[in-house]
Amino acid sequence: MGQRVSREDFMWTYSEQPHCSRREQIVKAHPEIKELFGIDPSFKYVVTCAVLLQVLACFLLRDADWTLVILQAYLFGGVVNHSMTLAIHDISHNTVFGNSRPLANRLFGMLANLPIGVPISIAFKKYHVEHHRYLGEDALDTDVPTELEAKLFTSPLRKFVWLLFQPLFYAFRPMILYKKAPTDLEVLNYIVQIAFDGLILYFCGLKSLAYLIIGSLLAMGVHPSAGHFISEHYVFSEGQETYSYYGFWNLVTYNVGYHVEHHDFPYIPGRNLPKVRQIAPEFYKDLHIHNSWSYVLYEFVMNPAIGPYTRIKRKARVPQQFYGNNMLGDYLDAFLTQIGYFKLTETIRTATGVVTEYCNGFIKAKVD
Q1: Taking Cα atoms as reference points, which of 42, 36, 83, 56 lies closest to residue 267?
Q2: How many CB atoms sit inside 10 A of residue 334's CB?
Q3: Which of the chain's termini has less CB crowding within 10 Å, N or C?
Q4: Tell me: the pLDDT tens digits for 207-231?
């Protein structure tokens, strides 16, 4: 049904991503922009309140009709949960406790993850780093659709179905494109999330747990707030790779709409991203911007010039890395070192060796 997309391949380029060079130019022209780097001191309070709000909603909906549960999931809970995914996005850049406290940021990400219903926080972090470092690079940036997605979802109806199941594609695409070793923090993320889901199920019932999970799926599919998935990097203007949106949805998405600014300065918290454009307007005034995420979704579905192939891609500069960073192990080693555990075990090992050697010598002397 409808006109098929006109592209049959991605938009391959041999140029570097534009964000590194623009960052250098902006810092040179406006060195004061560095004052925006760092943490957002209000962030942890806003996120904590949102998590508590969802727990309250679960309690209030425990005996509600299923129709009300689904409507609330789409109109309210899904918006909150989608905002939590974007809080996790900001947390992945260490904007809560700073770069000096990575474990604190990861643990707080697990808190933000709770109302979403499924564990995504730690896995998102390790793939999102690659998205910034290797933007558009083949098999490294898992934000780009697979070849199979691009070939299958080519008509308006198919593209609509693709949008409907977009959260599932985002969840499973990394497992297909770029396999990484599981880490101890991912295991902890699963344990914490399952425990929280179990508590919601026990105290509030199945409808409340469904409210959380259904809301997450609906609000990241065909939903106005999900327009950012398409608006950020799908090519709507020839030659431009990243796009910003300055509308009201930024109020509940931690300013993720300021996406060009975010890629230019990943270590500036979402709260401060509007100030980037205020400080350096000459670097952003000529770029194409989106005025409506809802219209972005409509355009994606109905415009044959736009589809999963409408992404800029580059050849990979480096091979994939399978290894995982087991952060808890490092902290455990540091703790044991601090309390003298390794020194004690080394002393015991040395003493045991001396005693063993003495006993062997004594026994040998007796035999002789």
Answers
A1: 36
A2: 9
A3: C
A4: 999 999 999 999 999 999 999 999 9
